[in-house]
């Protein structure tokens, strides 16, 4: 296998009008990551010398996602061949005659192609007597309106014909064009420069270079991939279909790593989730980006987790929400209807139910009672709450930050704590109970009378005391 340089051109200038979105199509996400990021991540595993992303005008957001790779702008959208030409100026050392370099062209809206498939194309190209030009093809269940890949008896690609231009015989071909191509750099550049837009759409069609190459007697081949791999995304419906494909892959990978998914179909993962082994995940769990889950952890049903690190043997949920910045220590517990944000829970710390712990540090083996909240926001700034090791916070407590609760301290239930509590201290902050005998009945009678007076004032023509009128009207 020869050592050749590789440049990758990523076409990401499409407007994506069928997405019905203000956001560029390639920035819509799958499993917590944009389509473009999926594509770039796949080809980066090939270690290319250069990646150039072709974007549309006013696509600063796409340029940000493409970094650190170079971007060029396709001002006029005149087809895929025209888009590729915009990148040539950035490919010094790849297009000139004599350059030992290859150029691959891929699409920013085709995020499911596996790195292994790209590698298969590169290996074939760099093999002894490898083809000068090769494309990616697939055999769909229904060929529909895909472009057809025409081959001769030796398997050389004669050309690629669009469905609208195909004869009835050509429409019977079941090998379809996925659009991805790889070839000798100078050859690809030369053939693309021969393209014209003398067609009904007035566009430069990239697949036509296979016709040119075959006519010159060059070796042209096709590599086959699965239909789901080459799925292009042009609508919200197709985005949802691609999400299902990717989630199935992620679930299989997670289980292969030693994760038990009790109901895989209702477990939603992100591409960057990091798992230990012997983890149990119950049904209806959503795991967003930037999550790490260590060995022997249990994630109970209906929990939502993002931006969190979960320690060994920790138990989360059910119905827990862990927001970014959450760190759960070894054996920590976050129970039902608990929300955490930017909170660190030490080893063995427990927040079992109905609490909000935000901008807080909770020491090892501290116990947070039901209904406790850290009041971390004063309308202008966020403030931190610190709870020491082994502290006990009684139910329905409000900790008004900034405040420190010492190690081993006890805070009585129903307290509103605005000042720090020392180590091993007992703090109870409650109003004094006032108990007046019979006052409840007097209160209710007084309120009832006021209500009757209001009704009488609103309806003066109605008799508020019909029994009295009946007495008055007796003859």
Helices and strands in order, then pairings?
Layout: E1 5-12, E2 29-30, E3 33-34, H1 35-44, E4 50-55, H2 60-66, E5 70-73, H3 80-85, E6 101-107, H4 115-126, E7 133-138, E8 148-151, E9 157-161, H5 168-171, E10 176-184, H6 185-193, H7 208-215, E11 220-225, H8 236-256, E12 259-261, E13 267-268, E14 274-275, E15 279-281, E16 285-287, E17 292-293, E18 298-299, E19 304-305, E20 308-310, E21 315-316, E22 321-322, E23 326-328, E24 333-336, E25 339-345, E26 350-353, E27 356-362, E28 367-368, E29 373-375, E30 385-387, E31 392-393, E32 398-400, E33 403-405, E34 410-411, E35 416-417, E36 426-427, H9 439-458, H10 466-472
Q: What report would you give on this structure?
A:
The chain is α/β, with parallel strands linked by helices. The protein folds into 2 domains: 5-225, Alpha-Beta Complex (Spore Coat Polysaccharide Biosynthesis Protein SpsA, Chain A), CATH 3.90.550; 236-427, 3 Solenoid (UDP N-Acetylglucosamine Acyltransferase, domain 1). 22% of the residues lie in helices and 28% in strands. It has 10 helices and 36 strands. The strands form 6 sheets. Strands 13, 14, 16, 17, 19, 20, 22, 23, 25, 27, 30 and 33 form a 12-stranded parallel sheet that branches. A 10-stranded parallel sheet has the order 12-15-18-21-24-26-28-31-34-36. α2 links the parallel β4 (50-55) and β5 (70-73). It is elongated and about 105 Å long.
């Amino acid at each position: 296998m020869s050592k050749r340089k590789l440049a990758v051109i990523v076409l990401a200038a499409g407007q994506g009008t069928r997405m019905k979105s203000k956001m560029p199509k390639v920035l819509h996400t799958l499993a917590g990551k944009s389509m473009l990021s999926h594509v770039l991540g796949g080809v980066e595993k090939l270690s290319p010398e250069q990646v150039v992303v072709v974007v549309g005008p006013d696509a600063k957001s796409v340029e940000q996602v493409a970094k650190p790779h170079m971007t060029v702008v396709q001002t006029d959208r005149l087809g895929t061949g025209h888009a590729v030409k915009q990148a040539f100026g950035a490919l010094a050392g790849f297009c000139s005659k004599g350059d030992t370099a290859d150029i691959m062209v891929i699409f920013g809206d085709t995020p499911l192609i596996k790195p292994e498939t790209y590698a298969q194309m590169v290996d074939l190209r760099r093999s002894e007597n490898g083809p000068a030009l090769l494309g990616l093809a697939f055999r769909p269940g229904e060929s529909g309106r895909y472009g057809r890949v025409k081959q001769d008896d030796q398997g050389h690609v004669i050309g690629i014909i669009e469905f609208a231009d195909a004869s009835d015989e050509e429409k019977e071909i079941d090998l379809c064009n996925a659009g991805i191509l790889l070839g000798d750099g100078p050859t690809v550049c030369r053939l693309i420069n021969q393209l014209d837009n003398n067609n009904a759409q007035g566009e430069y069609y990239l697949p036509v270079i296979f016709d040119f190459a075959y006519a010159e007697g060059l070796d042209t081949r096709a590599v086959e991939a699965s239909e789901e791999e080459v799925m292009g995304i042009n609508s919200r419906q197709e985005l949802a279909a691609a999400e299902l494909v990717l989630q199935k892959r992620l679930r299989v990978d997670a289980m292969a790593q030693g994760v038990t998914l009790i109901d895989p179909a209702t477990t939603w993962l992100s591409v960057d989730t990091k798992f230990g082994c012997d983890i149990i995940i119950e049904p209806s769990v959503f795991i967003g980006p930037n999550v790490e889950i260590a060995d022997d952890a249990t994630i109970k049903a209906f929990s939502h987790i993002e931006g969190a690190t979960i320690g060994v043997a920790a138990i989360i949920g059910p119905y827990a929400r862990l927001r970014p910045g959450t760190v759960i220590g070894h054996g920590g517990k976050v129970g039902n209807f608990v929300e955490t944000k930017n909170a660190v829970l030490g080893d063995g710390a427990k927040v079992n139910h109905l609490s909000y712990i935000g901008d807080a540090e909770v020491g090892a083996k501290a116990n947070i009672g039901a209904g406790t909240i850290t009041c971390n926001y004063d309308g202008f700034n966020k403030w931190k709450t610190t709870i020491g090791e082994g502290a006990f916070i009684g139910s329905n407590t409000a900790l008004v930050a900034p405040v420190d609760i010492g190690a081993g301290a006890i805070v009585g239930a129903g307290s509103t704590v605005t000042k720090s509590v020392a180590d091993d201290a007992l703090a109870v902050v409650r109003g004094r109970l006032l108990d007046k005998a019979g006052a409840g009945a007097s209160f209710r009678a007084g309120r009832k009378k006021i209500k009757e007076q209001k009704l009488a004032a609103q309806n003066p023509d109605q008799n508020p005391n019909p029994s009295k009128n009946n007495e008055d009207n007796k003859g």
